[in-house]
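Problem 12. The chain below contains 170 residues. Write out its predicted structure in token notation.
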Amino acid sequence: MLERKEAGRPNRVFIHGLESSAQGRKGVFFKTRYPGMIVQDYVGSFSRRMKKLKADLEDKDNLIIVGSSYGGLMATVFAGKWQEKVKKLILLAPALNLLPEEELSTMQINVPTFVYHGKHDEVVPEYIVRRRAEKLFTNLKYHLLDDDHTLNATFTTLNWDSLLSLEIPQ
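Solution.
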């Protein structure tokens, strides 16, 4: 059972990508630097992963969700269904290209969203992600980085203390 945070404090969450885990580079970074952050393993089909994510977060609010690649898709779908729980999204090369067109046309997300995408990404097409992000998110800050899909060169240089706070950077 995941512990409930004190009311008014952020519940930070990291959702890994399709072929990664909570023990991957980003998961270990977050668990080490932010010990209270929720970093779980998600396996199986998309619906199975979403069912586990919903169960992990059902009694939480003030969510700040970081989603990497497939985890970014999961974070987006979660925020689309339960916006009232989400205070901020940070999406790292999110696999929005996998979002079904019918969901894209019906979903609009009003939470502050920060997308970081590598311009050399050969896994998730940046131009599709940008176009879809601009349709989905009404409060979007999109950052194109000189990096690849994993964001290995820039991931640790991002201002995580600021991104993971309830304050919204200008």
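Discussion. The CA atoms of residues 29 and 35 lie 10 Å apart. Students who got a different answer should revisit the alignment rule from Section 12.3.
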